[in-house]
From TrEMBL:
<dbReference type="GO" id="GO:0003700">
    <property type="term" value="F:DNA-binding transcription factor activity"/>
</dbReference>
<keyword id="KW-0805">Transcription regulation</keyword>
<dbReference type="Pfam" id="PF00126">
    <property type="entry name" value="HTH_1"/>
</dbReference>
<dbReference type="GO" id="GO:0003677">
    <property type="term" value="F:DNA binding"/>
</dbReference>
<keyword id="KW-0804">Transcription</keyword>
<dbReference type="InterPro" id="IPR036390">
    <property type="entry name" value="WH_DNA-bd_sf"/>
</dbReference>
<dbReference type="GO" id="GO:0032993">
    <property type="term" value="C:protein-DNA complex"/>
</dbReference>
<feature type="domain" description="HTH lysR-type">
    <location>
        <begin position="6"/>
        <end position="63"/>
    </location>
</feature>
<comment type="similarity">
    <text>Belongs to the LysR transcriptional regulatory family.</text>
</comment>
<dbReference type="InterPro" id="IPR036388">
    <property type="entry name" value="WH-like_DNA-bd_sf"/>
</dbReference>
<dbReference type="InterPro" id="IPR005119">
    <property type="entry name" value="LysR_subst-bd"/>
</dbReference>
<dbReference type="Pfam" id="PF03466">
    <property type="entry name" value="LysR_substrate"/>
</dbReference>
<protein>
    <submittedName>
        <fullName>LysR family transcriptional regulator</fullName>
    </submittedName>
</protein>
<dbReference type="InterPro" id="IPR000847">
    <property type="entry name" value="LysR_HTH_N"/>
</dbReference>
<keyword id="KW-0238">DNA-binding</keyword>
Length: 316
C-alpha cells in the first residue's frame, strides 16, 4: 500500500479518538491497548503532514484542521461501509448502468412497457437511452458502446455470430395516408384508426415514403415485397430515417407509408391509419446484445424482456 495514503483503519482510529477526546477511552472502545493507537494516530498525522490533535498530559483535543477533517473522514468511512452492499447489488443486477438503444417504432408501445416494468423492479439502475436505426445499433453493439438494442429483424449476417437475439413482438404493417386520400378510397371513417381495410392497388399512384434501404434493409425489403406481392412497383417519393418524420411527411400530403401497427399511436393531424386488404408479413422487433458480454444489469433486463415476449406475440 502507498504509505502516503491513509488506510481505513487509521481513519477509524482518528474518529474514535476525536469522539472520545481521550486515548485511553478510545483504545477501550476499539478493543486495543493505548500505545498502538497512539502510534497509529502519529503515523496518520505524518502521512497527512498535519497535526490532528493538540495533546496535553490530561487531555486531547482536535486541532482546527482535525475538526474540519472529521466530517470528511466520517463520509469516507460511510462510503467504504456501503461498498459491500453496493457490490452485492451490482452482482444481482439491482444497481449499475444499462446503455440501451431503440428503433423509433419501439417508442410507441414496446419501449414504454419494458421501461416501466424494469424501472419499477430495478429503480437503482441508471438507464442511458438513445434512439437509433437498426444498422447503427448493431455497429454500436459490436463496438461495445451500448449494452443492448431494440431493433427490427433480421440482423446483418456478418455480425449474427457475435450477437444474441430475443424476439419480443410481431405486428402487421398498416398504411399511413393523408386524410384526403383516405376519403377518396371510400373510407367511411375520419378517425385516425379504423378497421376498414384498404388495398395497395387503390394507392398505386400515391408516392411511397420509406426508410433508405442502406439504413434498414430488412424493413425496406419487407415493404417492397408487399408491393411486389400485389403486382405493384411503388414510386418512392421521399426517404426519411425517423418514423416521426415519415408520418409528418404523410401529414403534409407527400405520400403514403407502410408502418408497424403500433405506430398508429403516433397522432398527426391529417394522417389516418388503415389495415391492408392484402396479406402482409409481420414486422418482428426484438432485443439484441453481445453474446459474450452479459452484465448482471443486462441479464436482469433480458429477463424482463423475456417475460413480456410471451404476451406480445413473439414466436415461441
Amino acid at each position: 500500500m502507498d504509505s502516503t495514503i491513509p488506510d481505513l483503519r487509521q481513519l477509524r482510529y482518528f474518529v474514535a479518538v476525536a469522539e472520545e477526546q481521550h486515548f485511553g477511552r478510545a483504545a477501550a472502545r476499539l478493543s486495543m491497548t493505548q500505545p498502538p493507537l497512539s502510534q497509529a494516530i502519529r503515523a496518520l498525522e505524518q502521512t497527512l503532514g498535519v497535526e490532528l490533535f493538540a495533546r496535553t498530559r490530561r487531555s486531547v483535543e482536535l486541532t482546527a484542521v482535525g475538526a474540519d477533517l472529521l466530517p470528511e473522514v466520517r463520509r469516507i468511512l460511510a462510503s467504504a461501509q456501503a461498498l459491500r452492499p453496493l457490490a452485492q447489488s451490482l452482482a444481482r443486477g439491482e444497481a449499475g448502468v444499462l446503455a440501451l438503444a431503440f428503433v423509433s417504432t419501439a417508442d410507441y408501445g414496446l419501449l414504454p412497457l419494458l421501461l416501466r416494468d424494469f424501472g419499477a423492479r430495478y429503480p437503482r439502475v441508471r438507464l442511458q437511452l438513445v434512439e437509433a436505426t437498426s444498422d447503427v445499433q448493431v455497429e454500436e453493439l459490436v463496438a461495445g458502446r451500448i449494452d443492448a438494442g431494440l431493433v427490427i429483424a433480421p440482423l446483418p449476417p456478418r455480425h449474427a455470430a457475435q450477437l444474441s437475439w430475443l424476439p419480443i413482438a410481431r405486428e402487421p404493417l398498416v398504411i399511413a395516408m393523408p386524410a384526403e386520400l383516405a376519403a377518396r378510397t371510400g373510407s367511411t371513417s375520419a378517425d385516425d384508426w379504423c378497421e376498414a381495410p384498404v388495398s395497395l392497388r387503390d394507392l398505386a399512384d400515391a408516392p411511397l415514403i420509406v426508410f433508405p434501404r442502406h439504413l434498414a434493409p430488412g424493413f425496406y425489403d419487407i415493404i417492397m415485397d408487399c408491393y411486389g406481392a400485389a403486382g405493384l412497383v411503388p414510386r418512392v417519393g421521399q426517404e426519411a430515417i425517423q418514423m416521426q418524420t415519415i408520418v409528418s411527411l404523410v401529414s403534409a400530403g407527400m405520400g403514403v407509408a407502410l408502418v408497424p401497427q403500433s405506430l398508429r399511436h403516433l397522432r398527426r393531424t391529417g394522417v389516418v391509419y388503415r389495415p391492408l386488404a392484402e396479406a402482409v408479413p409481420a414486422i418482428e422487433t426484438g432485443l439484441v446484445w453481445r453474446s459474450a458480454e452479459v452484465s448482471p444489469v443486462l441479464a436482469a433486463f433480458i429477463e424482463i424482456v423475456r417475460a413480456h415476449a410471451s404476451t406480445l406475440g413473439a414466436p415461441g
